[in-house]
Amino acid sequence: MTGVLLINMGSPLSKKEMREFLFNMFTDKAILPFPKIPQTLLALMISSFRNSGSWKKYQQIGGSKLKASMNVICNQLQSEIGKDYLVTAAYSYSKPSIREGIEHFKKQGITHIKVITMYPHSAFSTTGSVISDLSKVQKKHDELSITELGTYGDHPDFIDYWVDNIRKSIQKSEFNSPTLVFSAHSIPQYNVDEGDTYVEEIKTSAQLISGKLGLNYRVGFQSKIGRIKWVDPDTKELLKEMKAENIDEIMLVPISFVTENLETAYDQGIEIIPYAKNELNIQNISRVEIPNSHPLLISMLKKLITEK
Fold first, then answer.
1. Which end of the chain is more exposed for a tag (fewer CB within 10 A), N or C?
2. Could you tell me which of 2, 4, 46, 3 has the C-alpha nearest to residue 25?
3. Residues 171-209: tens digit of each pLDDT
4. What helix, strand, coil percent values describe the chain, rounded to 5?
5. What distance, in Å, lies between the first and last C-alpha atoms of the chain?
């Protein structure tokens, strides 16, 4: 039997878990590349000061949408892929951890493990972090064969997955021919300068999806933190430019995710969309809501597992 581990960032289910989630995130060197002691102290400060505000945001979106979606995806993939595989989920910053996910397989005598992240595009701070964690586990368990299957932002099923989601959203919004704004979570500019391919991978996905739909598009970046230089253009600034160009139908696409989370449901749904409507007077703007699962997503995951 082969173990299949689907890895995502994770999300808290309580205010206590919110603090733990933030601490785990900001002690990850892929997020904050600082020496251990100052990084730990900074993570303690961030997790303390941001705990209440971040938990209120989760309450506003109805709790953890990410874990609910992951449960559905795991169950559907398990049903589709059959008894020769055991599918489970693990998370970088909440429980069960990546180490716990691997040990779950080991306890059941499974030594061959395939890993897929829920990040369609590679980035030092996401896929890089996962690969680092897997490497640490592999060093402790050399009897295990752990294979990370890579990203899939240009996979035909991934492109068709977004084409279908966008078409349904356009129909629901009753738009005629909206301009697509592919809004991805931003990353520090210094990561790009050091060779991170995330931005180019996002742009490739956007081009392939918009080309198949025959719609104009832009690419923007959101959810920046702190005062360092982040990748541009900022999604809100991009919307300002589009308003000045009299673009009157806009569909926001959360291209860097396959599960709803705080960055999609809150940052896009509660911050960016109301900002566009109330401050820029862009009334015909909507966002694509990510379904809990999708047949094309399951099809793609199955192909990645069985063909590699």
1. C
2. 46
3. 999 999 999 999 999 999 999 999 999 999 999 999 999
4. 50, 15, 35
5. 16
**Residue range 76-103: mean pLDDT, rounded:** 96
Assign 228 a pLDDT band (cuts: 50, 70, 90): confident
CA distance 303 to 308: 8
Q: Distance between CA atoms of 103 and 97, rounded to whole angstroms?
A: 10
Whether residue 264 contacts residue 224, with contact meaning beta carbons closer than 8 Å, is answered with: no
- DSSP annotation string for 234-271: BHHHHHHHHHHTT---EEEE-TT-SS--IIIIIIIIII
3-class secondary structure, 187: coil
Measured from the Cβ of residue 75, the count of other Cβ atoms closer than 10 Å reads 12
CA–CA gap between residue 249 and residue 255 (Å, rounded): 18
Enumerate residues 6+ apart whose C-beta is below 8 A from 266. 57, 58, 60, 61
Which domains are assigned to the chain?
2-151 (3.40.50.1400), 156-287 (3.40.50.1400)
Answer for the pair 212, 159: CB distance below 8 angstroms, yes or no.
Answer: yes
Radius of gyration over alpha carbons of the chain, in Å? Answer: 19
For residue 38, cis peptide bond before it (omega within 30 degrees of 0): no
Edge-to-edge order in the sheet of strand 145-148? 85-91, 2-8, 112-117, 145-148
Nearest to 274 by CA among 63, 264, 283, 225: 283
C-alpha to C-alpha distance for 261 and 185, rounded to whole angstroms: 12
Rounded distance, CA 135 to CA 137, Å?
5
For the chain, what is the mean pLDDT? 95
The reply to whether the predicted model has a pTM over 0.85 is yes
Query: Which residues, at least 6 apart from 132, have a Cβ–Cβ distance to it below 8 Å?
Result: 29, 30
Contact 124, 151 (CB under 8 A): no
Quote the CA–CA distance of 202 and 191 in Å, as a whole number. 15
